[in-house]
Prior knowledge:
- The protein is α/β, with parallel strands linked by helices.
- It has two domains: about 1-90, Translation factors (Elongation Factor Tu (Ef-tu), domain 3, Beta Barrel), CATH 2.40.30; about 100-255, Nucleotide-binding domain of ferredoxin-NADP reductase (FNR) module (Rossmann fold).
- The protein has nine helices and 16 strands.
- The protein has helices at about 20-25, 70-75, 110-120, 140-145, 170-175, 190-200, 235-240, 250-260, 260-265; strands at about 1-10, 15-20, 35, 45-55, 60-65, 80, 85-90, 100-105, 125-135, 150-155, 165, 185, 205-210, 225-230, 230-235, 240-245.
- The strands form three sheets. It has a seven-stranded antiparallel beta sheet.
- Helix 4 (about 140-145) links the parallel strand 9 (about 125-135) and strand 10.
- The protein is globular, with a radius of gyration of 17 Å.
- The site of FE2/S2 (inorganic) cluster has 12 residues, from loops.
- FE2/S2 (inorganic) cluster binds near residues 216, 217, 221 and 235.
Amino acid sequence: MFKVVERSMIVPNVHLLTIEASEVAQAARPGNFIILRPDEQGERIPLTIADWDVSAGTVTSLFVQVGASTAKLARLKAGDTIPTFAGPLGNETEIAKFGTVVLVGGCYGIGAIYPIARALKAAGNRVFALIEARSSFALYWEDRLKTVCERVLVISRDGSRGYKGHVTRLAEILATEKIKPDRLIAYGCTYQMMEVSRQTKPLGIKTIVSMNPIMIDGTGMCGVCRLTVAGETKFACVDGPEFDGHEVDWEEFLARRESYNAEEVEPLHRSGSCSHF
Ligand code: FES
């Protein structure tokens, strides 16, 4: 059993969950995810690791509450235990000295980009964050990101903070801010990552996205998380979760996801629930 150290709603509908799991904390790398179950009957929920503390032996993730499974997670409190906490899973983010890197985060992705920003800065990059939410009240971890980013830009759908609108304005914002990324990494809902990839393709900016299909085993055995990248079948859990956004077959990915009924899609708290689009 794994102990809950903290579960708190940090902005409406977005929860922070810190679990005691020292082996996972020791092995965690930026871009990894974990799979957990809130109870013995619960579905397996994949969550990107947003931070970890090796000395405390804890791992932190963010999740969006959208239905039954995530509602169970949202009821956890410090001291509770959960039966499953497997990880770290997936390949880590490629960290190297690329030059200028822009990290785009929305929903759970605002937290997920933090360890990536930290590692990229340590590798000598100029790191910018572009975080997006439907309104200023849905933004979080801005101060934390500022500690590892040269600047943190904001897009709010209602214009209450930063640029008004959403990532459909990405190319325009990069031009206005005179930021020329050598690489861009996006974590958020499927539509956000698809739109980011669409915007950066004509600009020739290498774009990495973290794909978030339904997952069951997370080890490449069940085949549920398959997608097509550069014409080849890939499994998000073992070949990803990060892929080149310009090579993902987005139409197929969306069609596959929509083929699941609402109950099955519900665990897609990492993606389908996003209300930004
Ligand atoms: Fe089963 Fe990826 S979750 S193959």
